[in-house]
Every structure is written in structure tokens, then in C-alpha cells.
């Protein structure tokens, strides 16, 4: 976290793009079709009065409010870091676990990760095969 003190007495606190860059470097895309993820990010930022611009988080304050504003920025950084659970592989795993639990609770017979080879050139893969 960086503090930039201005001549007029205001202070800009920023993460210099670290939080969002950290997510993207771990495989969580916030661009393209990631509308829901961007909405979650914006909700986090808005909930604590922090701004997000060009991939960086920042907030303006004065010396009197510096400790509480710094705490708010840290909370935003931690909440954004928690978004790592929204990575595609984790979301898919959670979804398939939920589907499996639902099928078991309804006593529906199924086979997981089913692979069927019909002749040498024709194969079928299915995550769930219902029996």
C-alpha cells in the first residue's frame, strides 16, 4: 500500500494495482465475459468507499481520517483477494460437487466421468451418466 501526500493536505492511498494483478496472475480473469466477477469486484469496492481505476484501487483522505481509511482499503484488498475462489476450476468443482450431492439426496443413480468408446474413431465423454 502506498501513501501519497499532497500539498493541499490530502492523502491518496493506493494498492498500485496489486490486488487485481494478483488475481489475474493466479488465473482469475476480470476481462472479457467476466461480467459477474467484475460486478462482484465493483460491489466490494463500492461497499467500502474505495475507487477502482485502471486496475488500481485508491481512496482519498486527510491526516485525521488516515487510519480508518487505510483500514477500509486493506479490507477491500483482502476481500478482492478472497475472490480467488471464483477461479474457473474451483467454480466447476463446487458446481459438480453440488450436483452430485443433489443426485445422491434424490437417490438418482448415476456414474461420474463416464467415457464410452464406440469404434476406434468415435468416443463420448460425460461428466454424469444417468442410469
From TrEMBL:
It comes from the Bacteria. Residues 2-80 form the DUF1828 domain. InterPro entries: DUF1828. This is DUF1828 domain-containing protein. It comes from Lactococcus lactis.
Amino acid at each position: 500500500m502506498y501513501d501519497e501526500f499532497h500539498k493541499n493536505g490530502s492523502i491518496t492511498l493506493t494498492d498500485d494495482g496489486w490486488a487485481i494483478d494478483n488475481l489475474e496472475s493466479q488465473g482469475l480473469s476480470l476481462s472479457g465475459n467476466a461480467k459477474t466477477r467484475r460486478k462482484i469486484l465493483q460491489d466490494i469496492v463500492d461497499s467500502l468507499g474505495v475507487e477502482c481505476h485502471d486496475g488500481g484501487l485508491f481512496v482519498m483522505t486527510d491526516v485525521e481520517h488516515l487510519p480508518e481509511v487505510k483500514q477500509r482499503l486493506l479490507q477491500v484488498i483482502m476481500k478482492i483477494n478472497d475472490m480467488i475462489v471464483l477461479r474457473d476450476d474451483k467454480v466447476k468443482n463446487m458446481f459438480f460437487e453440488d450436483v452430485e450431492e443433489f443426485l445422491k439426496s434424490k437417490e438418482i443413480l448415476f456414474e461420474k466421468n463416464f467415457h464410452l468408446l464406440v469404434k476406434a474413431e468415435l468416443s463420448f465423454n460425460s461428466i454424469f451418466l444417468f442410469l
